[in-house]
Here is the input.
Amino acid sequence: QLETHINPHTFEFNSGFPKFGFKDATFTIKVPVGRPSDYNWQVSKNWLTVNNNGVVTFNKKPSSSWTAEITGRAKSGVGHDGVVKFSITPHIWLDLRSSKASTPEEHCKINGGTLSTVTDFASNFARQTGSIIPEWGNLQRYQSSIFAIPYIVVKHDQSSTHDRTLLSIVEGGLLPFDSNSGVRFWDNTAVCAFKP
Here is the structure.
């Protein structure tokens, strides 16, 4: 099982968690036999690390491959021969990027991504995979600078009469606004989405 480290919730290995990644996101591997510290941990990609206590940390956006294999093998002398092996494949990486673009969409495009959407963050307060707040919980509790502010600018879905919205990263609340409104507080708050 996998347990979110900051806002505790347990996901099964086969749940698809995590579908969203961001710098400094962490989760803990709950092993079926013994304790995480009983194992030697290895990870196949350098955009992840796993410490001696089975805590997995996202370090940077995946590059060549978006699938990482994580393996734990029991140390000698711990009284069992447990093996834990699983893979994770985030579908979207979220990041803040700086630029001098005139719109948040162009800002993200310059950096190789797209402006993230309301759907990416959607929350009905149920913990589940598929959107970042249901997966990771209250994002302000993480150390990542991407979520050091209470609201971010994201793209509204097609059913809205507004094309952008301010979104609360704590619970997913929305404050829609229009791109022609003259509002310019998006400069350091537009979150870009990157995909494989």
In short: Helices lie at 104-110, 118-121, 132-136. The first helix runs from residue 104 to 110.
